[in-house]
Amino acid sequence: MSISAQNPDISGERQSGQDVRTQNVMACQAVSNIVKTSLGPVGLDKMLVDDIGDVTITNDGATILRMLEVEHPAAKVLVELAELQDREVGDGTTSVVIVAAELLKRANDLVRNKIHPTSIISGYRLAMREACKYIEEKLVTKVEKLGKAPLINCAKTSMSSKLISGDSDFFANLVVDAVLSVKMTNQRGEIKYPIKGINILKAHGQSAKDSYLLNGYALNTGRAAQGMPLRVSPAKIACLDFNLQKTKMQLGVQVVVNDPRELEKIRQREADMTKERIEKLLKAGANRQELLLLGGPKEDMRHVAKATGATLVTTFADMEGEETFDPAHLGSADEVVEERIADDDVVLIKGTKTSSAVSLILRGANDYMLDEMERALHDSLCGCGGGAVESALSVYLEHLATTLGSREQLAIAEFADALLIIPKVLAVNAAKDATELVAKLRAYHHTAQTKADKKHYSSMGLDLVNGTIRNNLEAGVIEPAMSKVKIIQFATEAAITILRIDDMIKLVKEDGQGDE
C-alpha cells in the first residue's frame, strides 16, 4: 500500500511504501546511467564544467560522481559508495555503482511481486558471502606464482580505459617498478606494498613518454632561502607543523608601553624566540650541515615523517610550559638534494630510514592531460577490472539458488543475474553483440564448473577488440581479487541500505519565527 499525504503531526510531506522504493531506484538508475558508458577499455569520456568554468575530461567513475552535485538522498549513497571504493581499492568505482544500481532494480521487481524486503536482504547477504568465498577458493592465483609480467598486464588492464591507453606498455612498466620499489615486510612477516609511499608529481612540457621514476620522495617545493645548501648528506629531518618564522603577537593582544625604547626590546625578544627554537633543533641534530628543516603540505609532511621515521611536531611546548625538542622526533635519510624538474625546484629525499619511497614524475602537454594521467596511474597503482569473474559467479550462484528451498532462492537468482550487467555493459560499450557474447561466456563457465577436465575455462572472458571469448589469464587481462571482493561487498551493502528505506519524510522550513 502506498501513502502520499500531508500529515497533520509533521510539518512536511511524507511518502511511504512502494512509491519511495520506486523513486529511490529511479534516482540510483539515473546515477548509474551517467557512468555506464564510461566502463571498460573502450568506454567514453565525460566532459564536466564546474560553476567557475573549469573543465575536467575523465572516465573515472569516482571523479565524475564527485563533481556532480547530486541532491537525491538515495543517489548520494551511490556517490559515497564510489568514493569508498576509490579510497579502499583505487579502481572499480564505475563497476561498483553499476552493480549496486542493478541489484536495487532487481530487488524492487521482487518487492512488487510480493516478496518481503527482509527476505531479499537475507538472500543478497548470503549470495555476497558465497560469491566472496568462491572468488577466494576457486578463482584466485597468487601473485608470487605469476611473476612480474602479469603485474604489468594487470596495470595495463586498468589503464586500458584511460587517456594513456596508447602508451599502456610504457606506463604499466613504470607503475609496476614503482610498486615493487616500495615492497616491504611488516613485523608479522606479511609482504606489504604501501602505495602512499609513491608520490606523483606533474610537470608541464615534453611528451607523456618522457615521464620517469625517481628514487626518493619528491616534494614540490624548493629551499626556503638561497643561502641554504643544495645537498645535505646524511640528513636529519625535523617535520614541523607550525610556522618557524619570526614570532608575532597574537591578534587582540595589547601591550601598553610607556617608554618608546621598550618597543625595540619587544621586537628583539620576538626575533630571539625564533633563534632559540632553531638552536633547540640544532642541539637535537648532529650539526648545521646535517639538519634540514622541511615545510610543505600536511599530506606530504605525513608521508615524509612515515618514510624517514620522524614525528610530526605541532608545538615545542611541554607539560611544564617550557619549550623543548626531543631528538627522538628527528627522522633520517641518506641524502636530501634540490633538483630542477621542468620549471620547478623540487626537494628529493633519498635513502629513507623506515620505508623506501619513490616518485613518479609525469610529463604532458597540458593540465587536462596531466590530471587524467594522474587518475589513470592512481587506478593502476591500486587494481584493475574485467569480465570473467562476474560470469563465473553468476553461473555458480544460479546453481546455488536451485539447491535452496527457502524464499532466499529468488533473491540469490536475481543477484546472479545482476552480476552479468558488467560483461553486458562492457560488450555494449565496445559496440559488440552483448546478448550473444554473454550467452557464450556463460556456456564456457558452466562447462568449467561441471566438467573436471575443463576447469581452465574458468579464466574465459571477453576480448572486446575482436568481439570474441578468450582465456583472459593467458592474454594477460587479470583482475585483483581484492578489487572484485570489495565491489561485491560494497555494492551489496549499498543496495541493502537503500532497500531498507520504506518511508521518507521531507520537512518543510518554517517561513518565520513564530511564538515559542
UniProtKB/TrEMBL annotation:
GO terms for molecular function: ATP binding; ATP hydrolysis activity; ATP-dependent protein folding chaperone; unfolded protein binding. Belongs to the TCP-1 chaperonin family. SUPFAM superfamilies: GroEL apical domain-like, GroEL equatorial domain-like, GroEL-intermediate domain like. GO terms for cellular component: cytoplasm. It is found in: Cytoplasm. This is T-complex protein 1 subunit alpha. Keywords: ATP-binding, Chaperone, Cytoplasm, Nucleotide-binding. Its main location: cytoplasm. InterPro entries: Chap_CCT_alpha (IPR012715), Chaperone_TCP-1 (IPR017998), Chaperonin_TCP-1_CS (IPR002194), Cpn60/GroEL/TCP-1 (IPR002423), GroEL-like_apical_dom_sf (IPR027409), GROEL-like_equatorial_sf (IPR027413), TCP-1-like_intermed_sf (IPR027410). The keyword ATP-binding applies. It comes from Brassica carinata.
